[in-house]
Amino acid sequence: MKKKIRIVIYSRKSKYSDKGDSVGNQIELAQEYIKAHYPKTEYNVEIEIFEDEGFSGGNIDRPQFQKMLKEEREKPFDVLIAYRLDRISRNIADFSNLMNELTRLHTDFVSIKEQFDTRTPMGRAMMFIASVFAQLEREVIAERIRDNMIELAKTGRWLGGQTPTGFDAERYEVVDVYAQNSDNILEKKKKKACKLIPNIEEGKTIQIIAKKYLEIKSLTGLETYLIKHNIVSRTGAYFSTSRLRALLTNLVYAVYDQDMKEYLEKKGIHIFAEEEREIADGRYGLISYNKTDGDRNQREMSEWIVAVGLHQGYIKGIDFIKIQELLEKNSSKRYRANCKNEALFSGLIRCKECGSYMRPKGTGNRKGDNGKRRYYYTCELKDRSKGTKCNGANVTGIAMDNLIIEKLKEILVPSSEIYKELKKMSITKGNKNSSDEIEIMKKTYDKNNEAIKNLIDKLKYMDMDVTPLINDELKKLKNENQKLKEEIEKIEKEQLSNKTKRSSESKGAELVLDIIDHNLNHFEQLDLKMKKDILRVFIKDIYGNGEKVEVNILNTKMDETTKKLFSNTITESNFKNQSSVANRIGTQLLQ
Question: For 3-138, CATH number?
Fold first, then answer.
């Protein structure tokens, strides 16, 4: 008796191609391997093929690969065949995880090119060794490309990407760069190099920012000044303090003069410059690279790559140095309020007047009735503009937090409409009508096929005169079956989609019900992170202005007007007894 075996073939190529190891050629080689090692005389082979063309091997985020993994986990294959190891992945971690999973599911792996077969201990060992070298090759290539880009940066060229505020990019010459081709080999290519050129209007903004910071000596004060005078970024947004700090510390704006040269040298920075730009005479600006590592962490300044650019700077060296000293001085004494970590609804509540987020702001007195820090939710735009762009009233923090939590507990009891709706959503139901319809169509399809077979059998005995009539009937039956087939496929596809949707909806509803049943009544005992996570399950957003708070509730199919929870006025006087404020403030759920 033949042994039944399920084999999956996977092929991948980074670029679309009909040459070399294209996906088509990879599949042909895999099929030849199957014929040689699993002959039809001994095996009943079932083959499934997955192809990804135009996708990198740097990760496993590929549509057909993920589909293959899904099928493997649901019903494991006996053997997975690939042309080469790197067709599966060039990342050792991804590859190792996959091999572990295949081993757990008792699926053998075969690499045709390297002739590795995980059915043998030596095959498994050699396969992992080869995958380590494949990743090493990939990392060496990446390192060489980075080194090449750093060498170009040292020349003062702009290496591409979003230009800094105050500059545009201009292509001016062709340079040699090294890039990785589809066969993972470094090759020299020609690329147009760019230099930064001044953007006059944006440049004026940079000069205003530098000048005013030296006058105001405060990032918060500078932020307010810019908002009041409608000075915005290139995207039309107001400058934040963090954005202003980034601008004021960016070396690209500094003029390369004698003051700047001495400042950088004291910081342990070597300044790269082509011969014609070596003299620090103030004609050029600076470009800095390598400021962060692969994890976006800031490197020590002595590790930066700083080069004299081809552009003019905006801020004289002496002024740039004063700005850095001032920023460092202010940073050391900057007050960091911690009420943000105590406020349950930061990131959810918005100002009802202007739509800006409201952020928690401490009152300076940490001794409330319940030992918590007293704070307000105040409009960010109002705070940043000192009331010139918005004047929405503050919302008292703990008072609002307690009120919303108590109201959620009231409306999410098992007898509520929301709870009942979630209960219905948690029950997955099939579509019996569609299944019955498919069954009827399949019977008609089979009946038509039988009629077609009978007519064909009778054709050889019939008179030639009736042949056209028989052909017309055959054509009619075939057309009807084609339409039936298309309709069956359409309904089955819809059923699958609805099943997936119902499954997702059902799981979501079950999760919410579980939170209500097991966490909401013990909310006070949970840690802050879990509290915030739970509240974001139920609440879409909140709008407030000190006089009225509107809460939009998620996870229900209720009409939008019934999902809005309003409260009466919450004022500063509520701070006198915040522990019982939720019981004293009238609330109503609009029905």
Answer: 3.40.50.1390
CA dist., res. 393 & res. 399, Å (int):
15
Angstrom distances, CA of residue 9 to CA of 12, 58, 87, 104, 118: 10, 20, 11, 19, 15
| Cβ neighbourhood burial of 23 (10 Å; 0-12, 13-18, 19+) | buried
Query: Which residues of the chain carry a pLDDT beneath 50?
Result: 16-20, 183, 335-337, 555-591
- The whole-angstrom separation of Cα 394 and Cα 549 is 11
Answer yes or no: are the C-beta atoms of 66 and 60 closer than 8 Å: yes
Collapsed DSSP state (helix, strand, coil) of residue 178: strand
Q: Give residue 565's pLDDT.
A: 46
Measured over the CA atoms of residue 253, residue 257, residue 259 and residue 260, the dihedral's sign is: positive
pLDDT at 259: 96
Q: Interior CA angle at 64 toward 59 and 69, to 5°?
A: 75
Q: How far apart are CA 34 and CA 30, in angstroms?
A: 6
Closest-CA residue to 105 (of 171, 6, 183, 29): 6
Q: Which residue has the tokens 């596809």?
A: 493
Do the beta carbons of residue 149 and residue 176 sit within 8 Å? no
Q: Structural domain boundaries of the chain?
A: 3-138, 151-198, 208-332, 342-421+526-589, 432-511
Nearest of 214, 148, 215 to residue 176 by alpha carbon: 148
What is the structure's pLDDT at 125?
67
Q: Which two tokens stand for residue 531?
A: 């509290």
Task: Report whether 306 contacts 264 (CB < 8 A).
Answer: yes
423-449 in b/e form (b: 16+ CB < 10 A) is eebbeeeeeeeeeeebeebeeebeebe
Cα–Cα distance, 535 to 349 (Å, whole number) = 12
Class of domain 208-332: alpha beta
Nearest to 455 by CA among 429, 478, 473, 433: 473
Q: State the CB neighbour count (10 A cutoff) for residue 286.
A: 26
Residues 26, 9: Cα–Cα separation, whole Å: 9
Alpha helices in 76-189, H assignment, sequence order: 85-88, 92-104, 121-153
Residue 296 to residues 58, 253, 267, 301, 415, Cα–Cα distance (Å) = 20, 22, 21, 14, 50
**Total residue length of the chain:** 591
User: How far is the C-alpha of 229 from the C-alpha of 258, rounded, in Å?
Assistant: 34
pTM for the model stands at 0.50
How many angstroms separate the CA atoms of 591 and 588, rounded? Answer: 9
- Cα 47 to Cα 4, 27, 30, 75, 446: the distances in Å are 11, 11, 10, 14, 27
Alpha carbon of residue 202 to chain centroid: 31
Residues 6+ apart with CB under 8 A from 18: 24
Contact (Cβ atoms closer than 8 angstroms) between residue 43 and residue 3: yes
What is the model's pLDDT at position 500? 53
Residue of 352, 268, 359, 259 whose CA lies nearest to 313: 259
Do residues 380 and 220 touch, judged by C-beta distance below 8 A?
no
List of residues 6+ apart from 337 with CB closer than 8 A: 360, 361, 362
